[in-house]
Amino acid sequence: MFPKPKAAIAPNTYEYETTPLVKPTGFREYDARWLLEKEINLIGVQALGLGMATLFHELGVRPDIVVGHDFRGYSMSVKTALISGLMAGGMRVHDVGLALSPMAYFAQFDLDCPCVAMVTASHNDNGWTGVKMGAARPLTFGPDEMNRLKEIVLEAKSKAREGGSYKFIPGFAERYMADLAKRPKLKRKLKVIAACGNGTAGAFAPKVLEAIGCEVVPLDAELDHTFPKYNPNPEDLKMLHAVRDAVLQHKADVGLAFDGDGDRCGVVDDLGEEIFADKVGVMLARDMSAGGKGGQFIVDVKSTGLWLTDPVLKQNGVKVDFWKTGHSYIKRRANELKAIAGFEKSGHFFFGPPFGRGYDDGILSAIAVCEMLDRNPDKKCRICVWRCRALGSRRPCRRIAMTKRNTASSIKS
């Protein structure tokens, strides 16, 4: 259907408008990502969609696919081009519109669609675009599927098929948020900073946190795809410093920082200090296994050694399996071993049933943190005490020794 893609085409030319541009390096281990116009053009995105449809048919799955897009000035155009390729390949497209990646994953279950294609650049700078995709919920593609997709697209091995269709699903964002909030409300009204970096999560995270009973202080929650202050990335120091300042200013219990497509959540304690994702995982594992419930947890191999030495985890009977770095690997391993949860070092958390469905959802991670704090009202310093203990420190928590908080500069990092 399409000519063989090229790795480089001069812009503003006839060839650019008639030939797919697809740079091979955009096919990564578990998703795809390119600089729009420089590394992939819209015809290239169409070719990608047709290639994905061909692969889905090769895999033998029912040809129903959820498609969504993040909040970028060009994501709708990219999604439209992708949809045209998917439909040409015989896929029945269910478009959930503006979405977080976990909202698209939820739609696979709620709409009973085996496949997903989420158009997102995640936390990256403007100009980037990409697709997170899968064909076996809750899993996303790994190296085998991505290498085969790369071969199909770059060698023009795609096959057009009859039967493609399109359906827009109105009001799906409300269905997603209602599902997250369908749980007992918090017993205490925690004051929470919900930092969204002007990314897509701003349309979702504050509403869900309010629905579960939090007092929410939104921070940069207005959608603005120019990202005027910083990229929505919970590992970015600019974002973390903004959350720190807001926590101290509002005397909040916790700061929660969401990335661009909402599948990660960074945590800042009530002293304004970041808690690294692997240590947040230790705290959550302690809480979820409390009372000797034990259970299996999958952990990024780069994570803290506290997973093996922490006395509380041992006392609770926790089993720990260290696995390859990368959200696709951790997700697959957690699903394979039916783990309570899997924790990836950059902040992708995968909660199994009954708490979650096995995919990474930053808002669900935030809910887990809030419920952990709510279940521990006796903590004088709430998350700070948990942090000190998880770090294995013998020093008393600084908050206990302080009589009041002053400014961020008074907190030693």
Summarize it.
The chain is an alpha/beta fold and 413 residues long. The protein is built from 15 helices and 15 strands.
How are the elements arranged and paired?
Elements: H1 14-18, E1 32-35, H2 42-59, E2 64-69, H3 75-88, E3 92-98, H4 101-110, E4 115-119, E5 128-134, H5 143-154, E6 165-168, H6 172-181, E7 191-195, H7 205-211, E8 215-219, H8 237-250, E9 254-258, E10 265-268, E11 274-275, H9 277-288, E12 295-300, H10 306-309, H11 311-315, E13 318-323, H12 327-336, E14 341-343, E15 349-351, H13 362-374, H14 383-390, H15 398-401
Parallel strand pairs: 2-3, 2-4, 3-6, 7-8, 7-9, 12-13, 12-14
Antiparallel strand pairs: 1-5, 4-5, 9-10, 10-11, 14-15
Helix pairs in contact: 2-3, 2-5, 6-7
Labels describing this entry:
alpha/beta; 2 domains; 6-stranded mixed beta sheet; globular; Alpha-D-Glucose-1,6-Bisphosphate, Chain A, domain 3; 413 residues; disordered C terminus
Query: CATH superfamily membership of the largest domain, which one?
Result: Alpha-D-Glucose-1,6-Bisphosphate, subunit A, domain 3
Helix content: 25-40%
Order of helices and strands: HEHEHEHEEHEHEHEHEEEHEHHEHEEHHH
Per CATH, the architecture of the largest domain is 3-Layer(aba) Sandwich
Average pLDDT level: 92
Please give the CATH class of the largest domain. Answer: Alpha Beta
Radius of gyration: 22 Å
Structure explained in plain terms:
Helix 2 crosses helix 3 and helix 2 crosses helix 5. The chain has two domains: 161 residues, Alpha-D-Glucose-1,6-Bisphosphate, subunit A, domain 3 (Alpha-D-Glucose-1,6-Bisphosphate, Chain A, domain 3), CATH 3.40.120; 228 residues, Alpha-D-Glucose-1,6-Bisphosphate, Chain A, domain 3 (3-Layer(aba) Sandwich), CATH 3.40.120. The C terminus is likely disordered. With 413 residues, the chain is of the alpha/beta class. The protein is 35% helix and 17% strand.
